[in-house]
Amino acid sequence: MIKQSVINFFRNLKYFFTPLGTLFLGLIFGVSFLYSGFKVQVKQATTEIQMITQETNISINDLKDCVIESFADVPWEDPIEAIKLITSSEWLNGTLKENISNTIDNYQLYASDIENAVVNAVSGYIKYIVIFVICAIFGFISGFFLTKFLIRRNIAKRNFWKFVLVTMLDSVLTIGVATLSMWLTLLWKPSIIFTSLVGIIIYGFISLFEAYIIHGYKKIPLKQVVNIKNSFLLFISNILIYIISFTISSFVIAITNAFVGVFIALPLVIVGIIVISLNAEAYIKKEVDKI
Questions:
Q1: How far apart are CA 233 and CA 238, in angstroms?
Q2: Contact at 8 Å (CB) between 156 and 288?
Q3: Which of 26-30, 92-96, 130-134, 204-208 has the lowest mean pLDDT?
Q4: What's the burial of 187, exposed, middle or buried (CB within 10 Å: 0-12/13-18/19+)?
Q5: Which of 8, 24, 50, 62 is deepest in the core (most CB within 10 A)?
Q6: In terms of C-beta density within 10 A (0-12 exposed, 13-18 middle, 19 or more buried), how is residue 180 classed?
Q7: CA angle 58-60-61, nearest 5°?
Q8: 256-267: b or e for each residue (b if 16 or more CB lie within 10 Å)?
Q9: Could you give the dihedral angle defined by the CA atoms of residues 197, 198, 199 and 202, in that order, rounded to the nearest 10 degrees?
Q10: Does 223 score more than 70 pLDDT?
Q11: 191-211 and 228-255 helices cross at what angle (nearest 10)?
């Protein structure tokens, strides 16, 4: 089982660019909304400031360029923190105020009204940030399910009715185990260690049992495939795939940078998670094919 699981992981790395492509597509749509919203809100802020100061020498393009230049100071070597920073209202407010104060003469005379205009512009920009996040999440989720569909077709294909059946079984059993673990933890906090270990074993049994119902029912004996030994081997296989995917990801980040590394590591982790979720089915299917 361990050998087969690792082989499945490396064999399905050919789908590396599938989640990466859908994520980039989502990001492209998201960035287009961010940029259009940025132009709209900067124009709005500029118009209000011109009315407040009664000056006509404030250029929308100059103000926009000043803000864009501020992006150069963002710590892009840590992409997650960079995204958090530039999408925060605090950074947007501070950046706009700083650049506007450098652009307008006698800024302090109009500071209060100008800051209100800036706050209004930032508030209006938040909705574009939300759209960007939705596009990114949609791209990620689409890539995950498309990749899972392609990998499943390779190692554990099943028809629609079996899909419905396993979804129902998985929901009932997983919720049951999670509820039991939470209940025991609430009764006695140290039990989280015990419930975690037991949960891992139970998860293995659940995965193998679901796989048996889908691919092995009335074809091979239940005890032959759903047992403690196979549950433990499944756990070892899954841990090994996690280690391999995270080791490769860490190596890539080490030789490049965090920004590039995240986009390379993400598809590796996605493929790893998907293969892990299908390992039990792949094993049962292989045992049935031996008959």
A1: 9
A2: no
A3: 92-96
A4: exposed
A5: 8
A6: middle
A7: 115
A8: eebeebbebbbb
A9: 130
A10: yes
A11: 100
Q: 62 and 56 in contact (C-beta within 8 Å)?
A: no
Q: Does 90 score more than 80 pLDDT? A: no
Return all residues near 196 (Cβ < 8 A) that are at least 6 apart: 181
Nearest of 280, 249, 247, 279 to residue 264 by alpha carbon? 249
Tokens of 28: 């492209």
- Please state the pTM of the whole predicted model: 0.67
Digit-coded pLDDT (tens) for 240-271: 887 888 788 778 777 877 667 777 778 888 88
Tokens, residue 267: 């598809």
Contact call for residues 15 and 151 (beta carbons, < 8 A): yes
Place of tokens 């700083």: 98
Take residue 75 and report the two structure tokens written for it. 């710590």
